[in-house]
Amino acid sequence: AILADQIAAGEVVERPASVVKELIENALDAHSTQIDILVEESGLKRIQVTDNGDGIAPEDVELAFKRHSTSKITTKKDLFKIKTLGFRGEALPSIASVADVLLETATATPPSTIIHIKGGQLVSKKIGARAQGTQIVVSDLFFNTPARLKYLKSMQTELAAISDIVNRLALSHTEVAFSFQSNGRLLLETAGNGKLQQTFSAIYGVKVAREMIPISGADLDFEVSGYVSLPALTRASKTYISLLLNGRYIRNYQLSNAVIKGYGSKLMVGRYPFAVINLKLDPLLVDVNVHPTKQQVRISKEDQLAQLLRKTIYTRIAQENL
Ligand code: ADP
Ligand code: MG
Q: What is the pLDDT of residues 73-101, one digit of tens each?
């Protein structure tokens, strides 16, 4: 079973940022309103995520580390209308198979459970006194898979990837207060007051945030909303376009391009806008079960959605009369 988990880890846990992503998504699925993330040495030494969410009941804690055991899907029908970020039940067992994991969790009913798993082996399980919520500490990532360690990029690149994922998840959940520390330095703190502008300003600075304009549009199948920068604010990086589909951060070439096309001739060649776009659609119209990391999704009527997005931005930018 450990070997199978390590194989799955090869897909789910590519780098420290993937661990951070999975842990934050679990905290979000558990309805947390406060999520604190702490990393040391770009996550290789330590990744700690603390939430105030639902927690896991003592009898379910070990199960959470078993492959394909998820509390989020019970019937086959659920698979076609996924509302949570996780559903494959692979993250925790994968992470625990390639690291040292200490998890303490409690539901509204005490006590808490403290479980220690290293390289997929249960080390200990005991009762603790933590209040409702979950704290997971992942240490020595890839200690038993040296090949994986070797393929990592520089510490700086790995930290940038973590920062990027934290930023995107914070942007996609403005109702949650996030804090993010790296080697003792506070890199991000959001208020969790539901205001995208506030989160934007925490990430990109007040100046950028002030010049973002809201967009919104809809057709029979889709709703698009969010903020885009005025052309004056463009930066030469496509990564400043964040797409959130029903709260899930996704990568999609056609849709990112639709954002850029929405600027028409207003955008200078080689420059890209800042944008955070929320896409809302019936979960039946999207298949998130394409890749283990779930960042690629299959959308029915994707062309129609791209059209709507382009038109919504085009119309809004035109109103600004630049
Ligand atoms: P998935 O998210 O796909 O269900 P995971 O391996 O990420 O699978 O997590 C396994 C299970 O552990 C989840 O279904 C959930 O029940 C539980 N779990 C994990 N993290 C948390 C958390 N932070 N708070 C509450 N429950 C959690
Ligand atoms: Mg998960």
A: 677 676 666 667 766 678 999 999 999 99
Report the alpha-carbon distance of residue 256 to residue 198 in Å, rounded.
23
Q: What was the ipTM of the complex prediction? A: 0.98
Q: Which amino acid is at 2?
A: I
Report every protein residue that has its C-beta within 5 angstroms of ion ligand 2. Answer: 26, 86, 91
The amino acid at residue 221 is: D
For the domain spanning 211-319, the CATH number is 3.30.230.10
Q: Considering the entire predicted model, what is its pTM?
A: 0.87
- Name the residue ranges covered by the structural domains of the chain: 2-189, 211-319
Q: How far apart are CA 223 and CA 309, in angstroms?
A: 9
What class, spelled out in words, does domain 2-189 have in CATH?
alpha beta
Q: How far is the CA of 136 from the centre of ligand 1 (A)?
A: 11
Instruction: Report the pocket of ligand 1 as residue ranges, CB < 6 Å.
Output: 22, 26-27, 29-30, 51, 53-56, 64, 70-72, 86-92, 134
